[in-house]
Automatic annotation (TrEMBL):
GO terms for molecular function: 3',5'-cyclic-AMP phosphodiesterase activity; metal ion binding. It is an enzyme of class 3 (hydrolase). Belongs to the cyclic nucleotide phosphodiesterase class-III family. Keywords: Hydrolase, Iron, Metal-binding. Pfam families: Metallophos. This is 3',5'-cyclic-AMP phosphodiesterase. Residues 22-211 form the Calcineurin-like phosphoesterase domain. Its EC number is 3.1.4.53. It comes from the Bacteria.
């Protein structure tokens, strides 16, 4: 773990080689107590099994991206346990909030051991961690101040010849499930106008939808990822949990601006999940 302040807006990581190797852990939903559950799934256990799998599969990890809903209800103890679990990696972690998170508690738990909503420089890349949380609401929006930060970070990256990976919690495009598409980024139109003005943006990565999405918008890679706990069934009109196991995404940000990426799920363990549930708060 590094030692930079959580309030430092600009972080730097030194990749081990020419590419930047990242791991995304998202929607961990850790509860107040170890062993707490979401739809019957023990979210500490599932995260720990995902981390074990990452350590088995990924030889090089330059940074870990934690893209929101890290605690189920914004508990300080949940974030403190996350910090503890992330110590398994010899890499710094970069967090942003989701709708279930409490930013103040995140910052309190981080205490210099991770970075919240930072702008990360790594080789010829910038990784931008945006805040799409509207406190007290499920849906997301960047809002005027975050849209402004987005614009100026992309401007700075352009001036310095950096490629950019943009990360946020809420989906900036519909994903094809009516119930969750009501929660998509409300100011997505402005988000895409900003992206379109900056050709250095090579990828947009989010959480929230608890499922894999790999598609394109022009030459920008659009990526959503499995939760480290409960999955949502793709293409559902109404809330529906999915039997797919928990997982993570790996990313390789290449020196030529390309992005290699994939997901991996924990196939060698069984998980409880209430597939009949109509949802959760
Ligand atoms: N049946 C439902 N209909 C609409 N939204 C739901 C339903 N169940 C849960 N949600 C919300 O939708 C969110 C999607 O992912 P989250 O983990 O943020 O948490 C979920 C809940 O806040």
């Amino acid at each position: 773990m590094g030692n930079l302040s959580s309030s430092a807006p600009l972080c730097r990581i030194q990749p081990a080689g020419d590419s930047v190797h990242l791991v995304q852990l998202t929607d961990t939903h850790l509860c107040a107590q170890r062993g707490g559950t979401l739809l019957d799934m023990d979210t500490d256990r599932s995260l720990q099994l995902v981390i074990r799998q990452v350590l088995r599969e990924r030889e090089v990890i330059d940074g870990v991206l934690c893209t929101g809903d890290l605690s189920d209800r914004g508990y300080l103890q949940a974030y403190q346990r996350l910090i503890e679990y992330l110590q398994a990696f010899d890499a710094e972690s970069f967090w942003l909030p989701g709708n279930h998170d409490d930013r103040e508690q995140m910052a309190a738990a981080i205490a210099g051991q991770a970075h919240l909503c930072g702008e990360v420089r790594a080789a010829n890349w910038q990784i931008l961690m945006l805040n799409s949380q509207i406190p007290g609401e499920v849906g997301g929006e960047l809002g005027a101040a975050e849209q402004e930060r987005f614009e100026s970070a992309l401007q700075a990256a352009q001036e310095q010849g950096l490629y950019t990976l943009v990360c946020l919690h809420h989906q900036p495009v519909p994903v094809g499930s009516a119930w969750i598409d009501q929660q998509q980024l409300a100011d997505a139109e402005q988000f895409w106008q900003t992206v379109d003005r900056h050709p250095g943006v090579r990828g947009v990565l989010w959480g929230h939808v608890h499922q894999q999405i790999d598609t394109w918008r022009g030459d920008v890679a659009l990526m959503a990822s499995p939760s480290t706990c409960v999955q949502f069934a793709p293409g559902s009109e109404q809330f529906k949990a999915d039997a797919q196991p928990p997982g993570y995404r790996w990313l390789e940000l290449k020196a030529d601006g390309g992005i290699g990426t994939g997901i991996s799920r924990v196939m060698d363990a069984s998980f409880n999940v209430d597939l009949e549930s109509g949802g959760y708060l």
